[in-house]
Amino acid sequence: MTRMRAATAVALLFLAVGSLRAMEPLQQKDDLFAGADKFSQGAKSTTEVNLDKNMLGLMGKFGDEGEDKSGSELAKRMDFVIVRSYEYAVEGQYNMADVEQFRKRLQDGGWSHVVKERSERESTDVCVKLGPNGEFSELVVISAEPRELTFVHLKGHMSAEDLMRMSTHYGVQGPPKMKDKEKDKEKMK
Amino acid sequence: MSDEFEQELKEGLGRVPAPEGFADRVMGRVARNERLRFRVMPQRVSYAWQMAIAAMVLLAVLFGVGETVHRREERRRAELVQRQFEVAMRVTGRTLNGVGERISRAGMKDERGEQ
Questions:
Q1: Scanning every residue of chain A, which has its alpha carbon at the shortest distance from the alpha carbon of B95?
Q2: Do B78 and A58 touch (CB under 8 A)?
Q3: Do A148 and A72 form a contact (C-beta atoms < 8 A)?
Q4: Chain B within 8 Å of A128 (Cβ-Cβ)?
Q5: Range of the domain at B69
Q6: Whether A17 contacts A42, CB under 8 Å
Q7: Domains held by chain B: number
Q8: Tens digits of per-residue pLDDT, A125-150?
Q9: CA gyration radius for chain B?
Q10: Hey, what's the torsion of the CAs at A136, A99, A107, A112, to 10 degrees?
Q11: ipTM associated with this complex
């Protein structure tokens, strides 16, 4: 009887350990964009990604990426990746004053404003923190368009080259080429 | 003297019939002892072995199942993370490209204004 109890206890212990190992890790806490989920109200589509270092470390572990490992190599160097993107069917679904509150958070904390663009209908802020080797240690993008609002917060060791490579790797068109620019110029004329 | 001694020796070493039922009692006791030895001792040993083997098999099965479940779960999470990372990088890349395009458009407007 005692042996049976001991065996049951061991079995339960194994099951408990197994379930603890399988538990999902907690999401990365981000003070910078805390409360940004209110913009999801009235959004046609919402994209929210929150990956901490442990989760990013899983990438590439199973070799599903094929030969090009640049994505997982970059992921391994990241501390966290937080992206919130909201798309709206019609304009005026969010209040620009609310976005301004998030921009104000970038005024403190040693952020370097790389891009600060304001127009009637759009605004963009790109802020970075540099590491000791001149690499980006943190990157924040707040982009507000009439029908789209995007918040990006990346922390880790990344270079501008990494970001360019990442854009190519994940199928995003690179910056406009010279020919395209010339065509644009002609159109403008 | 020697005849007397010889007589005593003959009487002492002579065959004496066993008491009634002696052989049966001896054989009965031997059989009982054998039964006890083979019944009690081996069963105790085999029970312990059985339990040990059962415990080892249980542990091995639990460990194997646990590892398989854990590995499957980890793979599922890795695939999910990879997809989310791709989405995040796509959104970031698209946004940064949009910024670049807007800046170059603004530059072109300025150039046109200067001309």
A1: A143
A2: yes
A3: no
A4: no
A5: 2-112
A6: no
A7: 1
A8: 999 998 888 788 899 999 999 999 99
A9: 49
A10: 30
A11: 0.72
